[in-house]
Amino acid sequence: MLLGANPIELSYRDHSPLSFPVVRGDQRMTNLLLDHGADIHKRTSGPEGTSIVDVAVHGGHLDALAIIVRHRAWWNSNKAQRNDYVIRALSSAARTTTFELGATLNYLLEGRGADPNAVYEALDAMPLHLSILFGQREAVRVLMRHRADVHWKLTIRGSLPFENMTPLEYAIGSRSAFPRTHQGHAREIAS
């Protein structure tokens, strides 16, 4: 197997074997490692660390992300794992260009990907709520294209700033509170 290398183990510096091919854009090596069982979900530095999908998402390595989400390693993961990457992508929205975030979400949501209506209980929010909060219009568009439900009322527990609001209610309410940041979200969602 790959000259004795283990595609699953982290290196002594806590890097995934996929780290360098993903960052350097080596599509052939990325495919080779995935075909030989490289773990896309293994986190560096413990359970709260970074996976190779996080590296692709946060680093804007869209070519690598496209390879990962089309590979059987992605489809063999469970829905919760795939949904988690959407929240991680939205959480890094402040550091991401609008185009990159839109393209990233599109890859994560395609096919049997993540659920655009997944509820993230730790935040009492859905991806649409977070997209509106961070002022990411392109993310709102992509989520809507993937059938995010603007009328889904969260009934977990009232947490600020969402307070059991549907994404549409939040967009309307936040527009008056943050006119520049959220201007147009309610109009965009309603259309």
Automatic annotation (TrEMBL):
Signal peptide: none
Keyword terms of this UniProt record: ANK repeat, Repeat
SUPFAM superfamilies for the chain: Ankyrin repeat
Domain of life: Eukaryota
InterPro entries: Ankyrin_rpt (IPR002110), Ankyrin_rpt-contain_sf (IPR036770)
Keyword Repeat appears in the UniProt entry: yes
ANK repeat intervals: 13-45
Keyword Repeat part of the UniProt annotation: yes
PANTHER family: ANKYRIN REPEAT AND PROTEIN KINASE DOMAIN-CONTAINING PROTEIN, ANKYRIN REPEAT-CONTAINING PROTEIN-RELATED
Entry protein name: Uncharacterized protein
Organism of this sequence: Monosporascus ibericus
